[in-house]
User: Fold these one by one.
Assistant:
Number 1:
Amino acid sequence: MTTADLDLMKHNAEGLFRRKRVLAFAMPAIVAAYFAYIFFAFDIPGLVQRASMDNAVTLASDSWSYKVHVTRSNSTGEIAYAVEGERKGAYPEGQRPDWVSGGDIVTVDLGRGYLVRLLPENRTEVDIPGYGTIEAQAGDRQVTTNLGDDLPDWINASDRRVAITTPEGRITLTGSKTEVFNYFPGWELFWFTFDSPYHGQPVTRILFGDRIDPDRANIAGALADWWNNPMWRHKDVAWAIGETILMAFLGTMGAAMLALPLAFLAARRFTPMVVVRGLTRRLFDFVRGVDALIWTVVLARAFGPGPLTGSLAILITDTGTFGKIFSEALENVDGRQIEGVASTGAKPLQRYRFGVIPQVVPVLLAQVLYFLESNTRSATIIGAITGGGIGLMLTQAIQTQKDWEEVAYYIVLVVVMVMLMDWFSGWLRGRLIGRKD
Amino acid sequence: MTDATLGKAHSPAAIDAIQSSYMVQVQRRRLYGGLTLMIFVLLMVSGFVVADDRNAGGFWEGLHQIGDYPAAVLSEAWAKRADLPALLLHFFPALVETINIAAVSTLFGAGAGLVLSLLSTRGLARWPRLIPLFRRFMDIMRAVPEIVIALVLIFILGGGPVPAMIAISIHTAGALGKMFSEVAENADLKPVEGLASTGATWSQRMWLGVLPQVAPNYISYALLRFEINIRASAILGFVGAGGLGYELRNSMAWGPGQFDEAAAIFILLFGTIVFFDQLSSRYRNRLSEGAHA
């Protein structure tokens, strides 16, 4: 090796190092500059101001707790008790929660010394430990109280409406009604609503005790009442989950069945005609490029909302994806096996069946099963757009902005559903292909 | 069938026995195959019937209407073709936002996925005992559909690109983390050991010993994710997270008369997806060829 060679090598090595050094500084700099641009493009400073922490608190607390509304109508003087203030969750006639007592003067005990007394003539007294008693008189469209002008920040008062937020519950007073909200942890009425005879019965009594409802066997009756629970709608939720899985299943399998013959047309080995091959490939690119979103929108116009639209959208998009993957797999098959089958005098169809299919099936099945799982997630989103399945229930529950415990319930169900599908497709893959991964 | 039976197979009777037992096996296999196929067909048909039944419009009534909406959109767009360039320009910022959401969430997701993958790979993990914990964590990140996180964040943060960005980032971190960790499992441990012998810290070992080996595969997976994330960010826009999807929903809500807007958005979306699809597949091919060479 001469000195000139060594010099050249050194020069090259230095050049390489210089390039690497520049790259090592340039890449982070570019990314940092991009993030700086995004910081302003996405208006992060404005977002911090707009973000509603109240909403976050409501969401976080409501998703694992429920409230019981005690509502006095100031026009009739009647007092109603209902879980979440919904008619479906109303206490039956003549019953009330055990933390409410009294006859003429109804006392609501919120706990830890916080008391609300609903007095006759639409008067209300609120005992707050460490603050005193707030007296209020509801009149025609207005509320008069003994509160001064200097109010703590947990009281919000005007002539028409007074809202008191305590750690144990909330009280809202207006001219027309007085409402007390008492919070409890848990998902109330998840099993049975008040109108079911099984509400409040211990599990052992339902399973082993005498008939609670004389007309029905305990377990059958309890199951039916739980299934038809009007508050949590277990039946509808189960149907919605079924619809979502159905969308994923029909879409994925339909796409695979459609894509397999088309993939032969797009593979160079099996279709010598350039025009056919090119057209099929462009078709795959087109349906993939249009994307599930546009397909969903277009198909929803033709078929209306529902699971069929969703499964067709998945089917069409995935036909393109599968077609591409399958045709690549077909390009890579081993020609010797086909030759071997052909040497036995097999016809073309038999050559495909015994020479090609056994080679590509493991690849194809692995892809199809992987997509089955990923499409379960897509079906949730497509359901939200086209109107079907658990995606729709979830969006509706979020849009009402009050049933956060239902939102939490649906989220848990969706996550469990996806994880189960993940596990199932992995298990099936292991069984069918014999490879555990 | 064992070698012992093969060795003894000289007499015709033994061959007959082998043949008949083989035929029995073949028939059983065919029976099972046929049964599986039947169950599958039954599932497909009944599934289709149920889906058709629960859909607002039926399959057969709707089939001939598929072309109606695209035809209406295209004819209106054609009638107003003079406005199309202006509309394309008008919606271009929304397109940029959609791409930005995808790009930022791919960057964040890839970064988080990188760390998670190294923490959950046997032989490389910083805390080997915590591998199952990080794996379950990634499973959950992957399992939560983007729309769930996006909708909840829209409620808290208000509409706009950030909820979609966070939602897609979380999913990307989980998905890439799994793929990255599969790649990292095959990484050669010798450079890591060599670095360890010089007293390198864990992050130095990963940065200098593992990353150079896996970088081409990682970048290739990240590019594939970017492509997927563009679609995801367009879809999330439809539920209120900004970008092109949001504009599409608005223009759809107007109905006829605004179909030219919908057409412009369709064109932009289609063009973008095809463009990045081609770009990333070309670049990925180059990366994988480089890795083989």
Note: Residues 192 and 209 of chain B are 5 Å apart (CA to CA).
Number 2:
Amino acid sequence: MFGYILKKIRYFSLKNKNEYMLQNTKPGKNNSEPISPYLEKNLEVIKGILRDCSDLTIHEFNFGRDRRFKGALIFINSMVDKEGIHKNILQPLMYDALLLQDNVDMDFTKIDTIRKNFISITDNLKVTLLSDLLDNLLAGASILLINGSKEALAIKSGKRESRSIEEPGTEAVVRGPREGFVENVKVNIALIRRKIKDTDLCVEKFVIGEKSKTDVYIVYIKNVANPKLVEEIRRRLKRIKTDAILESGYIEQFIEDSPYSIFPTISNSEKPDKVAAKILEGRAAILVDGTPFVLVVPMVFVESFQSVEDYYARPYLASIMRVIRFLSYIISTLGPAIYVALTVFHQELIPTQLLISIAEGRERVPFPAILEAFLMIFTFDILREAGVRLPKAVGQTVGIVGALVLGQASVEAGLISPIMVIVVSTTAIASFAVPAQTDSGTILRYIYLALAGIAGGFGIIMGLLATLLHLASLRSFGIPYLWPIVPLDFTGLKDVFIRMPLWTMSKRPKAIVWENYDSYNQSPGLMPSPYKKDKSDSK
Amino acid sequence: MEKKMNFSIMKFFLCFFLLLTLSGCISAREINDLEIVIGMGVDKDENPGKILLTAQLVKEDTAGGASGDGSGGGDSKAYWNVSSSGKSIFDAVRQITHKTGNRLFISHNQAVIFGNDIAAEGLQEYIDYFLRAHEMRPTALILVAEEKASDILNIKPEAEEFPAFNIAKLVNSYVFTSHFYKVNMKDFASCLMGATTAQLAPLVSIIQDEDGKDIYVSGMAVFKNGKMVGKLHHDEVRGLLWVLGKVKSGVIIVSSPDEQGKAVLEIVKAKSKVTPEIEDGNIVMHIKIKEESSLSEQTTTENLADNKAFEKIQEASAEVIRQEIMAAFDISKEFNADIFGFSEMLHKKYSKEWKTIKDNWDVIYPTIELDIDIETKIIKTDLLKKPVMPSEEEN
């Protein structure tokens, strides 16, 4: 029966693929014809294609010494900086050209002549194909067409609304830079470049999305990042054929290694310092226009438990916090499951006094412990979701109502035992300690709870084993997901459960840089020490 | 490729769910359906050939209330004792469900108390269930009641909520006096398996005073082959513990060198070494005891904190220890019960001779001689160096 279903699924997916191919090869869709030398004809074509665009401006003008040349400036008036166009394109062409000496004879039908002599906007581009022309036009460029020229000039005079750089909402720090990425990808690249001023820093551009034509950049450091990794990212990006990339999550879901896994294999961040640090380790960042969330590949599991602050603070507290984060992940996934397993299956493992007080608390509870736990976790998830979606002003009300519903009222009504409230609230708090794994933690919590309800401790162990097997099988762009624990790498372990002092971590992560695996990021022996008079120093 | 992967996922889930069904011991029980047993008592029933089992259960609806309010719920008790008679312990355990409605949950049992009559008849036949049942813990304490075990479980302690916890606490307090010691099921069973060694179990009794009844550990019951043959009093138990090297702490009282008052010592550390020796067919046990104590109290004006006084006190305390050991040995000879475990020591050292000794052990035991060598030392005088009295210069 499975075979039949699989066959059907494959049949439909193949059918869909064919239909998609057919749809995209329909005639008229492709504007890859060259620009004609006749201005009138070009304008006709463009007007024809963009006939329903009321915000399209076509400004025809004559210029040159005796105004015998004809030109047209085309732009979408909602996207350009009009003042800049007047000042930097139209004024030089229409007025400054008049002031030319008689003996200077310029061929104004050559786009290069205009580009080199009159256009003072640096960000310009020669286009020869109509499709390129339209792409640039729709991206906010002003198109300069000259009668008699087979080329057009796309001048990027666009203005771009951009949010100012603020502290990101998702990754707040006590110590560390407060800046965060914004929606404008140019700004984001600048933010990274400010951190890494290196000639080897590469910024490769891709345009993805048939309709959105979103700019996607791969940023990495040549000679540090594994070339195969970069090649693999390019390959995966190129195969994306979709209408739109609206957020980096789209890219993530199209290029991730294990789409069926509940664990993310691509990390994301809003913080330039974090992304820069990862690029410096040999990873590659994927920046997507229109979102402050930058993807970083490859990702390993322990990365979820690392915070930028670990490296800014001195190593002792940072190491304790690491351990606390690991523990909270365990608590957040296993808390209710262990409680249910203990109280339903293994009561002999609970200390006698505790057992008595749990039994006393559950005396009036009408539900089995497993249902009680499900109800509580479910209620908590509802509250969390509601709290996120609601406007901030109303959000507090949800918290108060939630505290009353979850805590006091349900216990007083005898629906929930007080210990269950403690277990679930501890679980809830712990789940926020590891933001990168909140998704997987939430799902695992339900799975483990169900297993604990079915088979107690045995079920939990089965679930843990399955999770471990799955984790060990995952890869992120060729890197084992559990590295450096599986496969064991002692140099990598310096930065897992404890964070060794910075001066001990002089090599880049082996699994990530791979080919130049003994590459140093700092000179060894940087341990600070006060000046000691050496024997060789003394006279 | 895709097919292969999907198929392996299917296989994985199939195996996984099969494994879940394979788990044989699925025994989910909600915690409020449990009848948590914290203490058990075994007595003889009025009907001959039957026993009366008393189980102390936690009353879940009032247990927390009493502890939470602090003042307690007046006369409402946090526990209830259920009794049932049966032809065997397990029979009685199952018959109790007629009264409780739920199966007993015995994993948290703190103590098993055997009544005087059962102990005299022999524990051998009754102890089996407590070791065999999977819910029983071998660390549950074993005790003997001087009267009926059910009466002991019925006395509500003043400070504790549950009588069974109170009894366990009392038995664990042996570390302060060494006047008895705790014996759990496992210890008792392993003693029972030795052919010649005697078994011991703390003896609890009820004392009546003005305020009501209290429970009191009065000594230890001595068993021979599982049958209770007599009782060791507090000092005799300590005599036994000196030899076994199990004295943790305790008080030794000797008269002060000037005979005006008493010097009270607290035992800090005690070690013992016993070496058996057979000389011309006579068995001599060389017992070497090293004891350290602190001067904790004195009831005389003499300054005891000097070497001369120390020596005298040390000698006197060694004499006290010797007397305690001899008292224990004498009473063990009276019962002809090898409470010290001399037989095991002989077995280890003289394994050839043991074969002949073993058969006449009961005859040989009273003829054993003890050679006791006691070394005592006072190592400190606690906070005072001199007794509290006017200094002599001022007089």
Note: The longest helix of chain B spans residues 307-335.
